[in-house]
Amino acid sequence: MSSKMFFFQTDEYLFPMNSNIVLIGFMGCGKSSIGRRLAKRMNYGFLDSDDLIIARAQGTSISQLFAEEGEERFRDRETAELRELVDAKNILLATGGGAILREENRELLHRIGRIVWLHADPEILFERASRNNKRPLLNVENPRRSFNALLESRIPIYEAISDIQIDATGLPHEQTIEAIIRALELNGDEKTGFEPSRE
Ligand code: S3P
User: Fold this and answer.
1) Whose Cα sits closest to atom 8 in ligand 1?
2) CA distances from 77 to 70, 96, 98, 166, 180 (A)
3) 136 lines ligand 1 (CB under 6 A)
4) pLDDT of the residue at 193
5) SS in 3 state form for the chain?
6) What pLDDT is attached to residue 14?
7) Cα 10 from Cα 29, distance rounded (Å)
8) Ligand 1 atom nearest to 49, measured from its CA
9) pLDDT at residue 194 is higher than 50
10) Residue ranges covered by each domain of the chain
11) Beta strands 7-9 and 14-16, pairing class
12) Is the CB–ligand 1 distance for residue 125 below 6 Å?
């Protein structure tokens, strides 16, 4: 049996089209908006784990699910959606910020695709994440304290499970997308960080 290799070409880069892409990162890092644009650019299908959960819950919002069922049940829903995606092809999956918490999820994410951690300066993350009240974990009495505690506990996990790490601090979306594409191109099995120029 011959094994054919397909390559994906953007305007400037060629890279093998044999893997999905999974975006991970803290609330507010831009996974959904950057992911949507990157998927379009790569001609990949775009999926967002929160949107999948909402759709399966007949439009119930994440805040409502947290309020009605609690976080554990929300995490069960998250795991269930990830299980559905292990055989997906040519997708870019944006995950909820806590999708990396369960061991099972981490294994599932690795099976789904190459994991890209989108990071940014904490001040930027906090400002973006707390812009609206759609994030129940920050809809608490002292959001800043919760934010700090969550971020601190999660950074080592994002770092450990990601194949590629992108610091998007100060970068417009288009440049972040370029940085991801460039890092995907450079990335073999090694962990890769691509340092874009910041004028
Ligand atoms: C969560 C992040 C949210 C959403 C839920 C829980 C988290 O997704 O899944 O509110 O635990 O960090 P975003 O990262 O897209 O905001």
Assistant:
1) 96
2) 11, 12, 12, 28, 28
3) yes
4) 47
5) CCCCCCEEECCCCEEECCCEEEEECCCCCCHHHHHHHHHHHHCCEEEEHHHHHHHHCCCCCHHHHHHHHCHHHHHHHHHHHHHCCCCCCCEEEECCCCCCCCHHHHHHHHHHEEEEEEECCHHHHHHHHCCCCCCHHHCCCCHHHHHHHHHHHHHHHHHHHCCEEEECCCCCHHHHHHHHHHHHHHCCCCCEECCCCCC
6) 57
7) 24
8) 9
9) no
10) 16-193
11) antiparallel
12) no
Q: Is the CB of 50 inside a 6 Å radius of any atom of ligand 1? A: yes
Q: Which of 9-23, 42-56, 163-177 has the lowest mean pLDDT?
A: 9-23
Given the structure tokens 């918490």, which residue do they identify?
A: 101
Q: Which of 104-113, 119-128, 153-162, 184-193 has the lowest mean pLDDT?
A: 184-193
Mean pLDDT calculated for residue range 149-158: 98
Tokens of 104: 């099972």
Structure-block tokens of residue 150: 């969550």
CATH of 16-193, one of 3.90.1110.10, 3.40.50.300, 3.10.105.10, 3.40.50.1820: 3.40.50.300
pLDDT at residue 199, as a whole number = 45
| Ligand 1 proximity of 30 Cβ (cutoff 6 Å) | no
